[in-house]
Amino acid sequence: MDIPKTSLSRRRFIAQSLAAGGAVSVPWLAPSRALGLGAVAAPSERVTLGVIGYGPRCRHVLGCMLPEPDVQCVALCDVQASRREQGKAAVDEHYGSSDCALYRDLREMLARSDIDAVLVATGDRWHTPASILAAKAGKDIYSEKPCAINMAECRALAETMRRFGTVYQAGTQRRSIENFQVAVNLARSGKLGKLHTLHASVYTPRMLHDWLPAEPEPPKDVVDWDMWVGPSPWRPYNSAYVNGRWRGYPDFESGATLLDWGAHTVDLCQWANDADDTAPIEYEPSESNIIGRYANGVEVILGFLATPFGDRSPHWPNHLGTCPVRFVGEEGWIETGDSGDILVHPESLKSEFPGAAARRQGTDAGTHVRNFFDCVKTRARTNCDAETTRHSHLACYAAANSWMLGRKLTLDPATEEFIGDDEANRMRSRAAREPWGV
What distance in Å separates the CA atoms of residue 32 and residue 428, rounded to the nearest whole number? Predict the structure, then answer.
């Protein structure tokens, strides 16, 4: 099914037409009931939202989006009937209506001209194909991470967002949370002295190959297994996969689980090192970490923590919560994590940030989704756009490839190619099952 390409969203069309002083006829505007009569923002100022993939993470992020007074969720798509109904119940309960439309095939939802933006919260294998389809359909995109499953997808994603002028926000919400901003800003200010080492916590990499046994495939309207598998290589149905037990299987995700946290922590290290447009040039694995080296001499250490499979004790103190990062300079260091606490040395550096900033502010994703919707309206660059995501994911996948191969790799960040290593270069991409190639 072809999706019509739209050069302007509904909001942009209205804004540009009004700026030109002309009358505007917009027959595709959603009815007032679908847009929510009780909302604060006028329909012309509202961002209409569609959801692709309803699961645990989606419930959290969508829960941050629904209270926004200028956002109206009008449609939800999932390949599982049970999740479609769960999503509809949550949306309809919030608005006190029964208007949320349901779809099994994302292409049918994306064909709606009254949807401005989409939340992509599928499994990893679908993030890039769904985002590219949405961009071609004229939608702006908030995508959960990892936003791509290999290096080639990272490039295709960023190039597509640029080509279509899409406002894109990666779900790396720590870019919008105050304690992480404080740590990064202090590292960039020079007050730690010259940076030399960055620490990013990640899961111990792991790949599973003990595939689950085949089970009878349910009817398509209950679970569309063919659509669930999507671009991944075909595998027989097992109910555990669709209930969340797909992580660690290389057909369904990439990077040996390293991006589960690396998409957050390596991203923050990139930001602290003013390296959002590049990546480390060397990657060297060991039993407890992977060390990356930037062209400016700074090292980033991807330190292994316990995996969700429980095979290793933590190597990192857990007093800062999950996803801690540490930035070390010649004159001091700063460390923070999901608890919101900030540790800093020397103590005199505490005067560089207010006491309130030492605690986590807001919700896990609330400020990040607000930044996205503001940028949908202004067309400004989001806190973590596709180009920024491209390079932080590039660093993660290069590190994962070095771990999988068990050897040091040298990367040219400009060409995104490994130098003198054909085997590593073959790992930069993989074939997608038709018709989902990007």
Answer: 47
Whether residue 104 contacts residue 78, with contact meaning beta carbons closer than 8 Å, is answered with: yes
N residues, the chain: 438
What's this model's pTM, rounded to 2 decimal places? 0.89
Amino acid symbol at 31: P
DSSP 160: H
List Cα–Cα distances, 139 to 92, 129, 134, 168, 215, in angstroms: 22, 14, 5, 9, 37
| Cβ 157 vs Cβ 394: under 8 Å | no
168 with 140: CB under 8 angstroms?
Answer: yes
Distance, first Cα to last Cα, the chain: 15
Neighbours of 393 (CB within 10 A): 34
Contact 401/416 with Cβ under 8 angstroms? no
Helix or strand run (H / E) with residue 302:
strand 299-305
Token pair listed for 168: 């894109």
Query: What are the CB-based long-range contacts (under 8 Å, 24+) for 96-100?
Result: 96/38, 97/33, 97/36, 99/33, 99/34, 99/74, 100/73, 100/74, 100/75, 100/76
The torsion region of residue 244 among left (phi > 0), alpha (psi -120 to 50) and beta comes to: left
Contact call for residues 282 and 411 (beta carbons, < 8 A): yes
Task: Give the DSSP H or E segment for 65.
Answer: helix 56-65
> Quick one: tokens of 432?
């997608």
> What type of residue is 96?
G
Kindly list the distances between the CA atom of residue 234 and the CA atoms of 99, 237, 437, in Å, as whole numbers in the listed order: 35, 9, 14
Q: What is the pLDDT along the chain (438 residues), one digit of tens a residue?
A: 444 444 344 444 434 433 333 333 333 333 333 343 444 577 778 999 999 999 999 999 999 999 999 999 999 999 999 999 999 999 999 999 999 999 999 999 999 999 999 999 999 999 999 999 999 999 999 999 999 999 999 999 999 999 999 999 999 999 999 999 999 999 999 999 999 999 999 989 989 999 999 999 999 999 999 999 999 999 999 999 999 999 999 999 988 899 999 999 999 999 999 999 999 999 999 999 999 999 999 999 999 975 444 433 344 555 677 789 999 999 999 999 988 889 999 999 999 887 644 444 445 688 999 999 999 999 999 999 999 999 999 999 999 999 999 999 999 999 999 999 999 999 999 999 999 988
CB 233 within 8 A of CB 251: yes
Cα–Cα dist 427/398, whole Å: 9
* CB 403, CB 203: distance < 8 Å: no
For 51, the token pair is 């959801």
DSSP class of residue 204 equals P
Side-chain-facing half-sphere of 256: CA atoms under 13 Å: 20
* Amino acid code (one letter) for 112: R
